[in-house]
UniProtKB/TrEMBL annotation:
It holds the Pfam family SpoU_methylase. It comes from Mucilaginibacter lappiensis. The keyword Nuclease does not apply. Residues 25-168 form the tRNA/rRNA methyltransferase SpoU type domain. The keyword Methyltransferase applies. Transmembrane segments: none annotated. PANTHER family: 23S RRNA (GUANOSINE-2'-O-)-METHYLTRANSFERASE RLMB (PTHR46429). This is tRNA G18 (Ribose-2'-O)-methylase SpoU. SUPFAM superfamilies: alpha/beta knot (SSF75217). The lineage of its organism: Bacteria, Pseudomonadati, Bacteroidota, Sphingobacteriia, Sphingobacteriales. Signal peptide: none annotated. Keywords: Methyltransferase, Transferase.
């Protein structure tokens, strides 16, 4: 087996990416501290062609070299907006017809493997702060909560790993 060279991957240009159909998902970053995490989520969001990213609160905004270290240019392809608070993002997304879903460990959460996105629905997936998770204020305004099943000794995944798992699952269930 031979690895493909970059020119064989036939990746879209930024303009082609912006014009293509998107996964009907918005990623909301609720006070994410690490710029490397932010950049990695941009790159993952580009890979799954999400509609947009909402950067909220203390979440840093491009352009910033620490974000670009891991984004590798995805800040140019993925649409993003900054909101002073995550609740402002949630309110705007709800007005735009998105179903608001926290990715969090919570009472009555639905395990990701048991969640089925509905056809013709748009979803806003909220990923929380690396230490405190999705803010309590936002948790009072969600439509549902998804939890990633875990079986080890640690109580959580890194936010980037969580975003990759959840976005892949939504892509697999909605786009295939």
């Amino acid at each position: 087996m031979r690895k493909l060279k970059l020119d064989e991957l036939k990746r879209a240009s930024v303009d082609e990416f912006k014009a293509q159909d998107k996964l009907p998902v918005a990623v909301v970053l609720d006070n994410v501290r690490s710029m490397h995490n932010i950049g990695s989520i941009f790159r993952t969001s580009d890979g799954f062609a999400v509609e947009q990213i909402c950067l909220c609160g203390i979440t840093a905004q491009p352009p910033h070299r620490e974000i670009e270290k891991t984004a590798l240019g995805a800040t140019q392809s993925v649409n993003w907006t900054y909101y002073e608070t995550p609740l402002q993002a949630v309110e705007q997304l709800r007005k735009a017809g998105y179903r608001i879903i926290a990715v969090e460990q919570a009472e009555n959460s639905t395990m990701l493997n048991e969640f089925t996105p509905l056809d013709n629905e748009k979803y806003a997936l909220i990923f929380g702060n690396e230490v405190n998770g999705v803010s309590d204020e936002v948790m009072q305004h969600i439509d549902a909560c998804i939890e990633i099943p875990q079986f080890g000794t640690k109580h959580s995944f890194n936010i980037v790993v969580s975003a990759g798992i959840v976005l892949w699952d939504f892509f697999a269930k909605m786009a295939m």
